[in-house]
Amino acid sequence: MTDQHNIILLPGDGIGPEVTRAMQTILNAVAAKFTLNLHCNEKLFGGAAIDATGTSLPDDTLSACLASDAVFLGAVGDPKYDGAPVRPEQGLLSLRAQMQVFANLRPVAIMTGLEDFSPLRAERVHGTDMLIVRELTGGVYFGEREESDENASDLCRYSRAEVERVARIAFTAAQARSGKLVSVDKANVLATSRLWRNAVNALHRDEFPDVELTHQLVDSMAMKLITDPSAYDVMLTENMFGDILSDEASVISGSIGLLPSASLGTNGPGLYEPIHGSAPDIAGQDIANPIGAILSAAMMLRHSLGLEEPAAAIEAAVQSALGSGLRTHDLGGDTGCSAAAAAIAGQL
Questions:
Q1: How far apart are CA 47 and CA 38, in angstroms?
Q2: What is the dihedral sign for C-alpha 51, 55, 57, 58?
């Protein structure tokens, strides 16, 4: 028997429980194929936790996550909490901070045969395969804020150390890919962006001279993502810019339901989740696309558990199933969430 890997599952809200069950189907299949000992333990989180305990991140859930080898999140959020003093999203921000995961990795690739599902012309998106590395725990989302009926302010703050640690992950990723990195900022206007650019340039000079580094202003990057997405390999940027650009890039693939993500720190477990939201309008109907969740599980095996071969097998099974005609509702087909998971497991 191989070493046991302890995984915490946070099904969360909306379609989260459905895609989490689908992901578990794949974990069970890959565990059987490669004789893996994957132990999954489910915990309350988000709106489901608020309903049961009054808080979106119960102490028991946090303790289990911190003691685990990896954490998988289905989805978080529910419109019934809009304007409420306790919101599901507060639990996610707190969990990221407590886990000290500061680098969010979002791969955006056009899968073979799905080019026509992109809102862009097929020839424009053909060959797109990029990795967006977003700083996750700094910047304006975590800065000091003031708010009244007449005035409000949000402080954006970064330290050189915060920039260096996420940039190091991006440079390392670029070394393992095509050796190209674009760093996105607003250095012509913002002081934090000038610090960002200076820190990235110094790290490039001192540690990663083999990587081809370019810089792009965020407004022009937003345009170039649409006009020439296949020109980019690894993109590095700060928290708010990364939030916006990664959502923009997600539609290039044709469906937000296809894309995974990983949030990593220097030590400790990583946090893995599909990038789609909780989609309460389709919750409970078994029509959600589970592929983003399944590919997030592949990232979990690779980055947190060091299981490259099983991770690659999951990714190949997804591609094979799509190549065989699997189409969920968001891709114009009629395959349900659980049936899609079964089909991909069958490819394993």
A1: 27
A2: negative
Residues 76/88, Cβ–Cβ less than 8 Å: yes
Axis-axis angle for helices 239-250, 218-227 (nearest 10)? 10
Strand, coil or helix: 63:
helix
66-114: per-residue pLDDT in tens? 999 999 999 999 999 988 899 998 999 899 989 999 999 999 988 877 8
Q: What is the pLDDT of residues 161-176, one digit of tens each?
A: 999 999 999 999 999 9
Per-residue tokens: 333? 């087909």
Token pair, residue 107, equals: 């791969």
Structure tokens at 91: 């639990």
What are the distances in angstroms from CA 302 to CA 100, 264, 265?
Answer: 19, 12, 14
Cα first-last separation, the chain:
20
CA 274 to chain centre: 6
Judge whether 65 and 30 are in contact, CB under 8 Å: no
> Considering only CA atoms, which of 137, 55, 156, 59 is closest in space to residue 96?
137
- All structural domains of the chain: 1-102+258-348 (3.40.718.10), 115-253 (3.40.718.10)
- The string of pLDDT tens digits covering residues 20-76 is 999 999 999 999 999 999 999 999 999 999 999 999 999 999 999 999 999 999 999
Residue 193, amino acid: S
Just list the catalytic residues: 141, 186, 219, 243, 247
Question: How many Å is the maximal CA-CA distance in the chain?
Answer: 64
Report the number of secondary-structure helices (H) and strands (E) in the chain. 12, 12
Q: Decide: helix, strand or coil at residue 122.
A: helix
**Residue linked to tokens 């799509």:** 322
pTM: 0.89
Count of residues making up the chain:
348
